[in-house]
């Protein structure tokens, strides 16, 4: 592992000589040295990947709390520690969970299959494509299908061009149609060395304790070999599905002529994990309950369960130690300014992003319960800063009045606004979603595809994302980190010093999703 750095190197002056710049960077009180040292510590081997519920995560949380306090920030609600009560569903060791799919019997070992809901289900298998339904987009994978008492077989990935938000309501849709369970299929081999997470973020293995949740149905996720075995001899096969998808044809529902028996046998274990939350007070008393909330997730994936190899630690340097480090230094820099922002600014290193964004969900709900309505959320997550970016992609900015504010902040640092690097829509993949779910305008910025950005992203995704190689040995461009932090500081201050709170643009495309989520929340609160 290359993450072991001698102590002196953590605080060495970072040489920026030989680095070309896209434009002159405005003078700033940001510290590259501090951001490098924070990233090195948080992604070091000693924290063993900062997994939820581990000693390594707690060490990271204590470090972040100390850094906030040393910068002069006070804890929100009197303490920087916000304990998030969680419940994890795990296999009951006295009753082995299993899935029988026709003649295929699988035993849950936490990787090949992923189970939800403690129940026993038996039902006929029906293939329903991607399991999507949306009247506005004229999508209905269930057309002509009676799911009552049956188990839906669904392709896990969302097809290109379809909003990822639809994937988050598949379980609810199938349950509302009388479906008794879901089997997700992976059509591609999981990359070697990648973390075997539950692949559908709508199906959490952990939930917030005490929060009402609609009745769950058993969910099974099959890796490619098991998916191939299930469909072998059925009217559809993995190869047929791939050919149909490649041709652009619509997948039709198919009765598979098999039955599924799912016996989950789960028990609940309770634990807590802290958000670290600090605040810079605002100068305008009329805005004290309308803060800007800045988030960056502190958790990562821990250690690989697979034995073998010298390195089993998912260090998470770019995901998201560098994001937390940027947030810490922006907070320190703003706290040291002579002028106090008009709005309060809350900075939160949140837990459990890798498991359904539970830390940010708990944070925003706690704020709302106290009558504190965030004016906006700025989320920092996994900026791939291995090159000198010439542009940025601000997800969510074009759907609210945040768009011009982001563009102006970026222009100060010579960055244009451009299209996305990632496949799909990352707006649905990180902690900004917790705020969007509550109707709060949010933005998540990543470095753009220009000046080699697309290649940098593709290399990171293939070689380091959720792998052991995401450590300090990769070529992080610290001048780019400084510029990226400068853009965020300018953006945060612009929101904080504007008495007008950001608002959603009319016809923004998120309205249907937001209204549905708010309606679900009201229903669950009854």
From TrEMBL:
<dbReference type="Pfam" id="PF04389">
    <property type="entry name" value="Peptidase_M28"/>
</dbReference>
<keyword id="KW-0732">Signal</keyword>
<protein>
    <submittedName>
        <fullName>M28 family peptidase</fullName>
    </submittedName>
</protein>
<dbReference type="InterPro" id="IPR007484">
    <property type="entry name" value="Peptidase_M28"/>
</dbReference>
<feature type="signal peptide">
    <location>
        <begin position="1"/>
        <end position="20"/>
    </location>
</feature>
<feature type="domain" description="Peptidase M28">
    <location>
        <begin position="275"/>
        <end position="487"/>
    </location>
</feature>
<dbReference type="InterPro" id="IPR045175">
    <property type="entry name" value="M28_fam"/>
</dbReference>
<dbReference type="InterPro" id="IPR046450">
    <property type="entry name" value="PA_dom_sf"/>
</dbReference>
């Amino acid at each position: 592992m290359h993450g072991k750095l001698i102590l002196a190197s953590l605080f060495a002056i970072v040489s920026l000589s030989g680095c070309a710049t896209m434009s002159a960077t405005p003078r700033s009180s940001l510290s590259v040295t501090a951001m490098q040292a924070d990233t090195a510590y948080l992604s070091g081997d000693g924290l063993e990947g900062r997994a939820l519920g581990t000693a390594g995560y707690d060490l990271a949380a204590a470090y972040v709390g100390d850094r906030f306090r040393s910068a002069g920030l006070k804890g929100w609600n009197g303490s920087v520690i916000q304990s998030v009560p969680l419940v994890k569903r795990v296999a009951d060791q006295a009753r082995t969970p299993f899935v029988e799919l026709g003649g295929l019997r699988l035993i849950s070992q936490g990787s090949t299959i992923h189970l939800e809901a403690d129940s026993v289900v038996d039902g006929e298998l029906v293939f329903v494509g991607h399991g999507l339904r949306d009247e506005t987009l004229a999508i209905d994978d269930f057309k002509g299908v009676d799911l009552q008492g049956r188990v839906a077989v669904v392709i896990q990935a969302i097809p290109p061009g379809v909003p990822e938000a639809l994937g988050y309501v598949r379980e609810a849709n199938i349950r509302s149609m009388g479906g008794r369970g879901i089997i997700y299929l992976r059509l591609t081999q999981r990359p070697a060395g990648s973390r075997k997470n539950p692949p559908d973020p709508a199906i959490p293995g952990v939930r917030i304790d005490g929060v009402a949740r609609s009745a769950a149905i058993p969910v099974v996720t099959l890796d490619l070999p098991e998916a191939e075995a299930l469909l072998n001899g059925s009217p559809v096969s993995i190869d047929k599905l791939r050919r149909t998808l490649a041709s652009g044809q619509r997948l039709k529902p198919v009765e598979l002529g098999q039955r599924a028996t799912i016996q989950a046998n789960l028990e609940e274990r309770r634990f807590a994990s802290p958000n670290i939350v600090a605040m810079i007070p605002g100068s305008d008393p009329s805005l004290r309950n309308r803060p800007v909330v800045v988030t960056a997730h502190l958790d990562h994936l821990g250690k690989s369960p697979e034995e073998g190899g010298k390195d089993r630690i998912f260090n998470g340097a770019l995901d998201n130690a560098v994001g937390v480090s940027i947030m810490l230094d922006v907070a320190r820099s703003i706290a040291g300014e002579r002028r106090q922002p008009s709005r309060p600014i809350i900075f939160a290193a949140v837990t459990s992003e890798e498991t359904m964004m539970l830390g940010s969900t708990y944070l925003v709900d706690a704020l709302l319960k106290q009558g504190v309505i965030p004016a906006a959320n700025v989320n920092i997550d996994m900026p791939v800063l291995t090159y000198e970016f010439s542009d940025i992609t601000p997800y969510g900015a074009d759907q609210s009045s945040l768009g011009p504010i982001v563009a102006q902040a970026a222009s100060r640092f010579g960055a244009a606004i451009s299209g996305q690097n990632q496949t799909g829509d990352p707006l649905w993949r990180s902690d900004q979603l917790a705020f969007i779910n509550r109707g709060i305008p949010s933005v998540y910025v990543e470095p753009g595809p220009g000046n080699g950005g697309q290649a940098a992203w593709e290399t990171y995704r293939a070689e380091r994302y959720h792998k052991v190689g995401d450590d300090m040995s990769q070529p992080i461009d610290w001048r780019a980190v400084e510029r990226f932090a400068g853009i965020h500081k300018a953006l945060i201050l612009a929101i904080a010093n504007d008495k007008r709170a950001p608002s959603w643009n009319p016809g923004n495309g998120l309205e249907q999703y937001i209204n549905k989520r708010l309606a679900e929340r009201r229903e669950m609160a009854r």
